[in-house]
């Protein structure tokens, strides 16, 4: 199906590439698989994947640096697949812009489910008939994955940041609980999901110029969730 989402797979192990490609294609996705970062980066000049599965242990490039570049330059969802199982590795990957983190060995069905969750409500979707949201002097362009400050500065948004910002902008001045975040953004309940949400909100607050001790836009309601404190206009 030519309109099926395209998933890029970057892993230096041929067996893992074949395993992932087979599972994804059986689930209706298109795939493009690469064993080296240089091949993958060259292919990005002629293709636009909807999601990227990135191994950190690459032979020719630091995987985390590649994740960070993708997060700042691409609107694709990014899922790290790695044998590094330490909590700090997960946290670093999420802080650099990954949407999710899967450790090896893994069940291919789980990877498929996580990709579906990431693409279920993409940031490009425009239920209100517009792709640009305006709030408190800021504007967010979800077609170009860009955030514009009141002073006119332009900041790129990763897929994860855009996805979360869209969630807040769709429900301004309403409490959003962790359970609602799980339902809207997808994922697996537990400490890893909670940490991923904390990291995303921290990154988003930084890009919005928020004072972490006294945020003006994204307010934490301890024990309950978050509220986005601004009116929102769509165009």
Automatic annotation (TrEMBL):
UniProt source species: Paracoccus sphaerophysae
CDD domains: trans_reg_C
Protein name: Chemotaxis protein CheY
Protein's UniProt keywords contain Transcription regulation: yes
GO cellular component, one term: protein-DNA complex
4-aspartylphosphate PTM positions: 55
Gene Ontology biological process terms in this record: regulation of DNA-templated transcription
Residue range(s) of DNA binding per entry: 130-230
Classification via InterPro entries: CheY-like_superfamily, OmpR/PhoB-type_DNA-bd, Sig_transdc_resp-reg_C-effctor, Sig_transdc_resp-reg_receiver, WalR-like, WH-like_DNA-bd_sf
Keyword DNA-binding: yes
Domain OmpR/PhoB-type residue range list: 130-230
PANTHER family: DNA-BINDING DUAL TRANSCRIPTIONAL REGULATOR OMPR, REGULATOR OF RPOS
Keyword tags: DNA-binding, Phosphoprotein, Transcription, Transcription regulation, Two-component regulatory system
Highest taxon of the lineage: Bacteria
Response regulatory domain sequence ranges: 6-119
One term of GO molecular function: phosphorelay response regulator activity
């Amino acid at each position: 199906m030519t309109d099926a989402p395209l998933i890029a797979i970057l892993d230096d192990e041929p067996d893992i590439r074949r395993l992932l490609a087979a599972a994804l294609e059986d689930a209706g996705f298109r795939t493009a698989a690469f064993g080296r970062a240089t091949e993958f980066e060259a292919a990005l000049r002629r293709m636009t994947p909807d999601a990227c599965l990135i191994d950190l242990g690459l032979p020719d490039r630091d995987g985390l640096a590649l994740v960070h570049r993708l997060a700042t330059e691409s609107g694709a969802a990014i899922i790290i697949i790695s044998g590094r199982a330490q909590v700090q590795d997960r946290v670093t990957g999420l802080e650099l812009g990954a949407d999710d983190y899967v450790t090896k060995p893994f069940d291919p069905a789980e990877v498929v489910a996580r990709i579906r969750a990431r693409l279920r409500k993409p940031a490009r979707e425009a239920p209100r008939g517009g792709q640009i949201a305006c709030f408190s002097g800021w504007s967010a362009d979800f077609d170009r994955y860009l955030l514009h400050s009141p002073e006119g500065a332009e900041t790129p948004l990763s897929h994860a940041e855009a996805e979360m910002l869209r969630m807040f902008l769709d429900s301004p001045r309403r409490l959003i609980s962790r359970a609602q975040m799980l339902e809207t953004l997808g994922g697996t309940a537990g400490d890893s999901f909670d940490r991923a949400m904390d990291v995303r909100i921290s990154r988003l607050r930084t890009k919005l110029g928020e004072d972490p001790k006294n945020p003006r836009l994204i307010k934490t309601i301890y024990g309950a969730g978050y509220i986005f404190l601004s009116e929102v206009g769509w165009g």
